[in-house]
Write a structure and sequence with these properties.
heterodimer; A: 174 residues; 9 helices; B: 184 residues; mainly alpha; globular
Chain lengths: 174, 184
């Protein structure tokens, strides 16, 4: 599993160490730990401005604290997208996928079913992440590596909740 | 010299984000099956990546802080909000098959369901903003511990805790690799 430009199955230990080293760099160089969901909140504020008007959004106490702007966090999110795109293109692994294999095996070929569940899941994940103070990246990794209580509480509860949900979804049917 | 701010930091943001997105893809973390099978104990890629990132990142950042090159950025532990939020997050992540970062990155590799889930994330963020005033006064205000770390809570040095964590990580990794539980 040596890293090469063409191969996508790099060792998870190498990838994990890479994210760890990236954390060293961002802590020193920009003093801004890796995180995703603050930026998504800001983008949601931008999208809401189009739908319900900028004034209404500006009066919201949450978006007043996190206004839509192209700042470090939103550009990091743009970069995350571009890095994945570059990696997919250089490894020739870009594939249109509507239903992943494990989902299809359990829930069948309905595109609607997969999309509805993905939408609801995305909404819940985002809502929960904001309430918890961050997601797997900003809370789990960036707070976890500092041994912050918030990060480890998040990791333990999130994993337990995910295990229970996966059991309910994928338990053997009789 | 550091930290870099202003427009130069914005360029670096794209570069650092790209490194993150690249690593997520190469680590197979943009694959729904890999993430879901972690929660079914059939694939331990997610655990290996996250545990390694936390141990390697944690030791390096501690050294850098002690050298005066970096500062900690510990966030408030609003325990009730973190527990309820993390529980909701776990349900959402398994339904979606992605966390927010891997979801956005997976769109770039052609996953249409990741794109639909990202629209769901925007919707979830809007719901949170709309309900924020209530959540802030009824949930985030309960059981606030402040910017605490496990080191602060236990009184044990951060370096010792990280050494124990590293030892635990290695033991878990050896157990996983030897057990053959992973279905390839």
């Amino acid at each position: 599993m040596n890293p090469s430009l063409k191969r996508v199955n790099w060792s998870p230990y190498l990838v994990g160490a890479g994210i760890g080293v990236l954390s060293w760099v961002v802590f020193v160089v920009v003093a801004n730990p890796i995180g995703i969901t603050t930026a998504i909140s800001q983008l949601a504020g931008g999208a809401a401005s189009v739908a319900i008007g900028g004034e209404t959004v500006a009066q919201n106490p949450y978006w007043a604290k996190h206004p839509m702007k192209l700042d470090y966090g939103t550009l990091f999110l743009v970069g995350t997208f571009l890095g994945a795109l570059l990696s997919a293109l250089t490894s020739r692994s870009f594939r249109i996928e509507t239903i992943p294999p494990v989902w299809r095996e359990r829930f069948g070929p309905s595109v609607t079913r997969r999309m509805v569940v993905a939408f609801v899941g995305g909404a819940l994940a985002m809502y929960g992440a904001r309430m918890a103070g961050g997601c797997t990246s900003g809370n789990g990794i960036s707070q976890g590596l500092q041994l912050a209580v918030v990060g480890w509480t998040f990791l333990v509860v999130m994993f337990a909740s995910g295990l229970g949900t996966a059991w309910l979804l994928f338990r053997p049917r009789h | 010299m550091f930290p870099i701010t202003g427009n130069a930091a914005l360029i670096l943001a794209v570069l650092f984000g790209a490194a993150f997105g690249w690593l997520l893809h190469r680590g197979r973390l943009l694959d729904y099956d890999v993430i879901i099978n972690q929660f079914r104990f059939r694939d331990f890629t997610v655990l290996k990546v996250m545990f390694t990132a936390i141990v390697v990142g944690g030791i390096g950042v501690l050294v850098l802080v002690n050298l005066g090159a970096a500062k900690f950025h510990v966030r408030d532990a609003n325990m009730l909000g973190t527990i309820i939020g993390a529980a909701i997050f776990g349900v959402g992540m398994v339904l979606y098959g992605y966390c927010p970062g891997t979801g956005v990155a997976a769109i770039a590799t052609g996953k249409i369901h990741a794109l639909v889930g990202a629209a769901g994330m925007l919707f979830g963020a809007m719901l949170y903003a709309v309900s924020f005033a209530w959540v802030n006064s009824h949930i985030l205000s309960v059981w606030k511990l402040g910017k605490v770390t496990l080191s602060g809570v236990t009184g044990l040095p951060q370096g010792l805790l990280l050494a124990l964590l590293a030892a635990a990580a290695i033991a878990v990794f050896v157990a996983i690799e030897r057990s053959g539980v992973e279905q390839r």
